[in-house]
Fold each of these.
Amino acid sequence: MMIEEKPALARPAPFKFEPHHFAPAAYNLESSIIRDILKFSNQPGVISFAGGLPGPDLFPVEEIREAADRVLTHYGTKALQYGLSMGYSPLREFIAERVAMRGGVQLSADNILVTSGSQQALDVVGRAFLEPGNYVLCCRPTYLGALQAFSFYGARYAPIEMDNDGMMVEKVDPVIRELHPRLMYVVPNFQNPSGITMSEKRRQLLVQKSQQYGIPIIDDNPYGELRYSGTDVPSIKSIGGQAVIQLGTFSKIISPGLRIGWIAASRQTMGVFERVKQCTDLHTNEFAQYVIYEFVQNGALDRHIERLKVAYHERRDAMLRAMSEFFPDTVTWTKPDGGLFLWVRLPEHADATQLFNSAIEEKVAYVPGKPFHPDGSGGNTLRLNFSNASLENIHEGIKRLGRVFSTLA
Amino acid sequence: MMIEEKPALARPAPFKFEPHHFAPAAYNLESSIIRDILKFSNQPGVISFAGGLPGPDLFPVEEIREAADRVLTHYGTKALQYGLSMGYSPLREFIAERVAMRGGVQLSADNILVTSGSQQALDVVGRAFLEPGNYVLCCRPTYLGALQAFSFYGARYAPIEMDNDGMMVEKVDPVIRELHPRLMYVVPNFQNPSGITMSEKRRQLLVQKSQQYGIPIIDDNPYGELRYSGTDVPSIKSIGGQAVIQLGTFSKIISPGLRIGWIAASRQTMGVFERVKQCTDLHTNEFAQYVIYEFVQNGALDRHIERLKVAYHERRDAMLRAMSEFFPDTVTWTKPDGGLFLWVRLPEHADATQLFNSAIEEKVAYVPGKPFHPDGSGGNTLRLNFSNASLENIHEGIKRLGRVFSTLA
């Protein structure tokens, strides 16, 4: 008996990825408008106030070189091996002590998870807390990177108005009662994008609301150590204790390329964060953790931050001076006591996104404010970075911007 | 008229995190049993075959030290600054050329996304493709880290039996028709945990099924360059082209502590991967990318891999010899042509998880096989790592394990 072979399958068409292959939450992610704008900003001759970059002229390159050399001379096989999901223990102890000392709170290494920059800290927080449709209470405007991290998990936003004392917390009750937010998210010190610092009274009220409604607070604090004027305000973590999850990073005070940030939180939450971190990327770059730990020894971090503060203070003042000189009277701006950013408000009818094209013609760049507004408002606002430009470029760039804004009439 | 003030709110109880505060997908994550086992394995005097660690005695510490020194001397301000979400372009070009050369495929830097180790590559893939309830077709056993990454996104699994030629692809049709998997996941070379390499015929059949049903293949390839015997099999990517997303890493061939892996895929998918990467952690450690790029120049990577292969070849052979000498006849094992792992099968009734306690009493550690089986089978199997032990320890440790297994009767 002959057994008839089945005919071979017709050769299928070459594989092509279609939208249905992807998870909608990923496929529908929008590219950051900031990233697109940064491409324009890098054109030759453009003075850019767009990025959130620290000044590379201030990187402690030589000290990092020496630290890396010592790490590989003395701990090479350990720094190059797999590490723990929670992070390199001596670095966690250093972070705990520093956060505790500056924040007036009690912390140990067990309260610290090391992350790949504070963007990953935001992502870990999003993963740990958010389900699709959950609301996040935040400021209007708020940090764009947090919106990007949380939105992947299906977050919606309950944006609260700000004044010069930060989020207007006295307005949150009806919003909380209606939307039951899962998290409260704030950048209390020298906020990105506005540069505004939340007052102590508002911090206390926020903690009170957090306790009253049982909603954790995410206290995102990348700039807290970069104060150039005024006096420190007690940290939300020191007021709220267990309820507060504080995020920090070495990106703005040492180097963003090393990608070392952290989450400081109660032990109750750390088990969840650790398991999330483990399935995400096992652990943070071990070599970079060793290098940072080696660099910060013997007060080197404090000395470096003092250098940063002197330089950024000058740059902030130069920008404020130039704005007074060159911006028309119809334009207003914040006067931040620290951080990297100033916030500009154009006349109501102006569109900072459209105006960006005129700015590029004048060879100067900024970031339009609209993407920082989860409700799509803020079309007449924009963000200026003052940390990543020389004093000369600040003067010249603001002069160019002044010409652009003068056309607004 | 007196306006009566509302009474102050009673001071609320201190905040306490409860399960309802967390997203269930995160709260319910299980800690990796491997992580728990590694804690036991690190006790003094224990010979551990448990981890998946490369041998630290073989790390190119001095060359990395020189590379780091050159990077910070010549490119300090760039290596310490923010970078691109896709990764450092020269490194992406190097990876593209190397993957193309070894895999017989056409690739450019545009096809490469640099990730924080290949665990993050798995996470990015999970984010990009998986929705809750989606099935992933995989081997039984399969890599535990992939299960952890995918499970966060709600994946379920369609595990397919393996023989010495890898996944028995001829059995997939009814499974695919019933469960409509969103992805096919394989570790084709020296699989973790089994050490098995998929035959060319099976690879071709897998690609045919992928084309036929329109399901992308994840070709996870951390060990492909570590072959000690036999000859290379054409890569799934070279057979399947666009349909295949290949994951790679420098963890096993340079250093896991530097956490540099990658995704090699068609441009159609790269836009999604890039946006996912951006909201996850902005970009991979820039300094580590520069250091690796500096290290691999002038054939240094090939020379280093040759050294690894000589050493791991000896260790594999030492373990196989010792197993023949000390293991009872009722125990069988694989003879991998490369990679870091051997796979052991105990008699049917044996429980490798329970037996771990006896092993620890004998001061020797392994990983029980059950967690690598998404269907909960494999209780009588276990994984041994041979890359992270000296020849003496391999002999002595296998001797100890032989004593443990002899009690099985």
Amino acid sequence: MASKFILSISALLFSLAMLAQNDDSITIRKIANEVLTNGKAYDNLRFLCKKIGPRLSGSANAQKAVEATARMLKEAGADTVYLQPCMVPHWVRGTKEKGYIQMAGGTRKELHLCALGNSAGSGNKGVSAGVVEIESFAELDTLGTPVIKGKIVFFNFPMNPTYIETFNAYGESGRSRTTGPAKAAKYGAIAVMVRSLASNPDDFPHTGVTIYNDSFPKIPAVAISTNDAAWLSKQLKLKMRLTAYIQTNCSMLPDAPSFNVVGEIRGSVHPGEIITVGGHLDSWDLAEGAQDDGAGIVQSIEVIRAIKSAGIKPQRTIRAVMFMNEENGGKGAAKYLELAKANKEKHLFGLESDAGGFTPRGFSLDVSDQAFEKIMGWKNLFYPYGASNFTKGGGGADIGPLKTIGAGVCGLRPDSQRYFDVHHASTDVFENVSRRELHLGALNMAALVYLVDKNGL
Amino acid sequence: MASKFILSISALLFSLAMLAQNDDSITIRKIANEVLTNGKAYDNLRFLCKKIGPRLSGSANAQKAVEATARMLKEAGADTVYLQPCMVPHWVRGTKEKGYIQMAGGTRKELHLCALGNSAGSGNKGVSAGVVEIESFAELDTLGTPVIKGKIVFFNFPMNPTYIETFNAYGESGRSRTTGPAKAAKYGAIAVMVRSLASNPDDFPHTGVTIYNDSFPKIPAVAISTNDAAWLSKQLKLKMRLTAYIQTNCSMLPDAPSFNVVGEIRGSVHPGEIITVGGHLDSWDLAEGAQDDGAGIVQSIEVIRAIKSAGIKPQRTIRAVMFMNEENGGKGAAKYLELAKANKEKHLFGLESDAGGFTPRGFSLDVSDQAFEKIMGWKNLFYPYGASNFTKGGGGADIGPLKTIGAGVCGLRPDSQRYFDVHHASTDVFENVSRRELHLGALNMAALVYLVDKNGL
């Protein structure tokens, strides 16, 4: 009798859970239909890319993007839109940057290059020296000062093509760009050329931040295209005698005032509990920052619009945040965390989209075990929309820090095959974003925000 | 004791199965590394698209594509490469095609249009008449001759944006193009305009085959861009008085000689059992046929290359087939089946790639229940490579017919979000294919062919 009663209770609870999932699937279908039929993310992205363009921190365009996204958030239906002032690094590329390989035989090959973000300029004279190819940091350390001093170091760390997830290859080879120049400077190199972090052979230099070590000189540092890197490596392996010339005119100006942009729907039951969804508003200066991270910006705005348009009244406060300065400083994320702490805000959950607006495959979650189990229980709700691959992993550079104040953090994981064709290069333009892929990402984000709001974590 | 023995046997069999899967995962990793590192599919596709271009059946370019892919198959390592002669329809677009909407007020709007494949030309005078918008075949039947006679019918069947799988929307709305003109002719329409079968608003007309009914006149039929269709629908709903003018100069010439191209690796144990992998070599005339179906062609060639390069000696005969004339006749597929029957070939399995060279998600299978269970047992082997979504479904237009002679048939199912941006339009060019996505598809195809060959079905 007792066991029968327990069985009945179990059956009842199971039935209730099924009913709830059925309700949820109806609401998510409503969100999906709204985004797929009337979605504004693509049009908003066109504006960001074509009417504004590159939005490097501290630039006039970054300020235009602040104003434009504040307007978009209002149009999307946010109850409140406000700015969070923050100071950001203000790096400028300058007008001239060029370089070539001078062969001992007299021929010269111009390089497709660009200065790395936050790097120091060479001055108008440029720098010229013999080239040492380095294929691992261990090799650099082994060669050391005797070989490196006075040379231009060429870091040739190709992204491993056999990794199916391109971010894994980026994580591995990306160190050549972020810390390579500082490591080479330690051994007396006078400049650094980095093989672009691109998945495929192409002629575009892909920029990105480099981080100097204050103990060593800030030497000029450029990215060269993957095709140029392959060519140069071949010359060096054939023992061809050559020198490289690099000229960059970039410089770091004093920090500049800027803003995060925040749009909220105030919670109807627990307004003090906050769910943040965001991307970063700044982009590199070479392109339109369409996939990186215009996509995440307009998707976050679309989450607000979809929730309002689907007639959902969130219990908790939903905040879409356009973080400033992810690319070369992270000052926006730091400011958001600082204010959250100062205001003693309770952050339940944060969701970041900063891996491109490609077809969504799932979410990576850094949440408690209990929350992970809960979210895994929603897997079937995401299956029809393609984003049911829930894995343990990080949130992202802007949302990740919220973990330190107790939030569960999460990143949208889209298909990654095309990301490093455009990442930080002049190819990251609106034309390389698919409307349906972008909107599919947004609707899955809105669905997850809806479920976390409704059920808590 | 007996049960213990059975348990031991079970454990042994389980262990053997695990060991086999482990061997298989090593071989598939080898295939994957080969394709991702040295894959030739992308370079072969560049040649097909940029050195040859559009390859409509019966055209000089189609013949060039026959010769080029025969060469590619040899380079890929096929033991034997041969051609299968077949006669194909020879439709030509002609030089002039244009059209506009003439408003009663005097203004005129030029339309982005193209003749539908296999359609009849209007003659140099063109045709002009009032326009009747039709949103369903039921509506057409209701209006019938009294309203339709003497008019130009405008089929406005938008692809449903809320379907996540775009092929489902295409299947539903595509009837407007394939059978709409014949149905309108039945009621006396003098021409047909079809809303292009595109997932998004754009300015490109998307062609494709239409199939007349011999009982009714073969009236001119064009596709207009989705943007033009939206504009025209709006004018008609506002009751604006207007007429349409359409001029096409396409015509059907006598059937022309052409070929399927076949490349084989002869089986080492069961040479008489055949596994076919293929795509179609012909393309529409408006573009390069990069996704449709240059991708499937070069992936099929890559399957041969990958198997040879990975040092696999197939037990069965692996055949890569470049089918001719999928787009407007299916004569290549019919010839392949006819010869298979005439030669009493034993066909075990067929795999088609004709849904674009996008990131692979899985395979749709039309096989026996027993074979389906067997293939489902390989799911985990495909998980690392993204194509583990095995569903019941069809093979495709070229491979599907092999079912009638006992083969299990199967289609590669890639991500479908971008396919109908380019499908049958001038946007289907090499630049809209991703190297990594294309190669990922090829390696998953090679893995499936490897497993079917090794294990049978």
